Each structure stands twice: as structure tokens, then as C-alpha cells.
């Protein structure tokens, strides 16, 4: 959870507990779920421990005698019922997670993180990490929690946590898993395509424009589509493998810095990158990538609607990072700056604009992001000698009128003549042709 929001929630819960407005209730039938995001240790030192072997971690939790009959099963050797919680029960994961959270509640966020049977202790020095480890092991002894020594890694600077290699530098892919994915042969039927996309999709936050690259493979999963692993599919298959082997290191977020959202749209998919920069003129370091394909209705959106759809998709995807933080959105579509103030927009755009009001957003031109050094220099004030005012000007200069063309000039010319501007780029021609169909 965002640290800003986390502190607010902690303060409010403490206040309500003191006023006896709420009370602890760990076995309620109803609960509002929270969003889970990948964690990165907050300090350099790290200790990773895994709770027990296979499913024995679950079996450390007793089942109430009056409910044990609900776990009855039969086999050729008889009928049996569990006295301890096994794998497979629908409520087993959240019961186990609640148990771990209850045991280490006073240590979470400050010195350790717990997700199911993965314990991670961290600190900014060796002695502090050793002290945190001692606290956790003492708590395990006091609560009769058994650990599997073979799966514990003590006092390391990096380790595998939830399938990712985590260190103080950031989060990386697990090379052993990448080797398995890259060794997969070319799929020969739909199930193998689905399996490959599932394995590669686990690390999709490391791959820019994952959905766009995987689109030929995703099309094979549709109903009533003949399986033809043609050249575009082979290209997408190899490209995903190459991207996984060269995946970047995603750095940890800094809650003191503003977040930056950048987009890379296409005609069929949405792509976004979340990053931060340490200062003006410095490069952006990536935190996460996100992408998805557009549905048939969204493919017919105008350029403005697609740009706004990208922002809405990104804010929803990275909500746990962005809520309560400053957000700088870079876009090459200038109309977005004025769209938030337009009173007579379409109902869909109005609904999206209402969603944006929850965030602290600043929209900037993409060209400014690409030329950050020049943009920084433009803000530096420089004292110069004032140029004297000339009292005499030729009448040709005084009477000269320079009227800029309106924004719709190119659209009107295209509708009337079906000709593009002479110096227009291919991307501008495509956008002009797409926008012009709404004025015919």
C-alpha cells in the first residue's frame, strides 16, 4: 500500500479502536479485500525464510472439532477427516494469511513482510538485520511455528521472493524460471500457446507493450479460429523470449518523488510505463510496465478518446502506487490539457474525467519530456541589458497581420480535397484520416 495512504489508515484505525467504535474480528464471514502489489524490501539487508515444507505450513493450524467432519474424504482404505487444515479448502489461504499476520502484526512494515509462507526480514545494516531476525525467530518459538531450515536463507543481500529476485537495487526476474520459458519449443496446439502466455505473462510488468507483442498469439486463443502458427506468431514467440532474457531491473518507488506516466499507444493495444526521476534532466527509471489489448468498441474510439483511455487504464492499474501522490502524465495529444475543462464532452469522457478527479494529475506535452534538459534551461532567469525601444518602424511592419491557421484547418482541407499536408508525417496522416471521418 502507498505509504501516504498506509499512515492515514493506521492513524484512523488506532483512533477508532481507542474510541471502541471498531473491534478486532478475524473470523468474519464478510470482508473488504485490499489490493496486493509486489513488494520490494525497503532496506539493503535481507533474510528470506520459507515456512515448512510443501503443505505442512497449513497443517500447523488446528480445525475446530465441530467442523472437522466437513473435511471428510474417502479412499480404498476407509473414510477419514482432517484434524488440521489441509490444502484445497476454499478458505485455507486467507485463514493461513490471517494467522501469520496476527502472529507478526507488530513487526510488519517496520522490519519484515509476510505473504503466506514467505517471510522477509530487512534492515539497513548487518546488526539491525540480525536483531530483526532474532525477534522473528523468538516469535516463532513463542507461537510454536515450525520452519523448514533447508528453505531458509539468512543474512543475504538478495533473494528470491514470490518468484522475483529482490535486492536493494530493485526487482529482477528469476533467471531459473526464464531459462525454462526460453527453452520451451514452438507451440503446436492451443493449449501450449495458452501455457506459454501464462508463463511469460507472470513477468509482463517487466516487458514494455507485452499485449501488443503477444497479440498474434492471443488471437489463436479465440473461438472458431483455425490454429495457424504463421510467421507473425513465430516472430511474437521469439520476441517475448528475447524480451524476457533482457528484462530490465525495476527499481523501488520513492514516495517523496512524483510519479511519471508515459504511453506507447498503437491501433490495437494500450501500453503504459510508470517511472520516476531523481531530478530535472536526469533519466527516468522504470518501476513497472502495463499493457492490454483494446476490445472491438475501443478500436473505433477517436484519438482523443484513446489517449484518455490510456490514462484511465494506467491510473487503475497503478492505483496502489499513485493514490495520494503527485502524477505527471506525458502525452503528445495537446487536446487532453483542455478536455478536463470542457463542459459539453461526451458522457463517456465525462465519466472518465470524474475518475481522474481522485488523483493529483498534471498533463505535460511529450516533447517537453523528450527534451528535459532544454526545458530546464528555459526556466533559468538571466539578466540582460534592456533593449531600447525604437520609435520609428516601417509601415509594412506596423500594418502586418499574421493570422495562425485554426486547429481544424488540416481536417477541412482533407475533407474537401482528400490530400494530406505536404510535410505531414505518416503518424499525423493516420490521425488526420481517423479524425476526419467524424466530419464527413
From TrEMBL:
Residues 230-329 form the Reverse transcriptase/retrotransposon-derived protein RNase H-like domain. Transmembrane segments: none annotated. It comes from the Eukaryota. GO terms for molecular function: catalytic activity. Gene3D superfamilies: 3.30.70.270, HIV Type 1 Reverse Transcriptase, subunit A, domain 1. It holds the Pfam family RVT_1. Residues 57-164 form the Reverse transcriptase domain. Keywords: Multifunctional enzyme. InterPro entries: DNA/RNA_pol_sf, Retrovirus_Pol_polyprotein, Rev_trsase/Diguanyl_cyclase, RT_dom, RT_RNaseH_2. This is Retrovirus-related Pol polyprotein from transposon 17.6. It comes from Mucuna pruriens (Velvet bean). The lineage of its organism: Eukaryota, Viridiplantae, Streptophyta, Embryophyta, Tracheophyta. The gene is pol.
